[in-house]
Amino acid sequence: MAIAEVTVIPIGTGSTSLSPYVADLQRVLKEQKGIKYTLTSMSTIIEGPLDEVFAAIRAIHEAPFQSDAQRVSTSIKIDDRRDKESSSEQKLRSVLEKLQ
Asked: Could you tell me where the beta strands, DSSP code E, fall in 20-84?
């Protein structure tokens, strides 16, 4: 399973507020099949099979253009572990266990 951290920044929107665009992206993700996603204060974490993760990233990258953004900058970081099952929850739990 792949875990991706994605930040989509619409440019040329006429406002410094991005929350309407972030809300749109979350609605787009809700329609995507085969993934799990978590909104954070700075990005969105998307988990699932790599093909579905890439499809979700493409969908949210395209979304701001539908809301009249003239340019979109998308940053992606992917952790694709193949030796065993992985998830965001598992990764956090592993670190927390080591802190005890």
From this structure: 36-39, 44-48, 71-80
Q: What digits encode the pLDDT tens for the residues 6-55?
A: 999 999 888 889 999 999 999 999 999 999 999 999 999 999 999 999 99
CATH of the domain at 64: 3.30.70.930
pLDDT, tens only, 66-95: 988 999 999 999 999 989 888 899 999 999
Is-contact 44 3, C-beta < 8 A?
no
Question: Which residues have a Cβ under 8 Å from the Cβ of 51 and sit 6 or more positions away?
Answer: none
Helices (H) and strands (E) in the chain, counts: 3, 4
What is the extent of the structural domain holding 13?
Answer: 2-99
* Greatest CA separation for the chain: 49
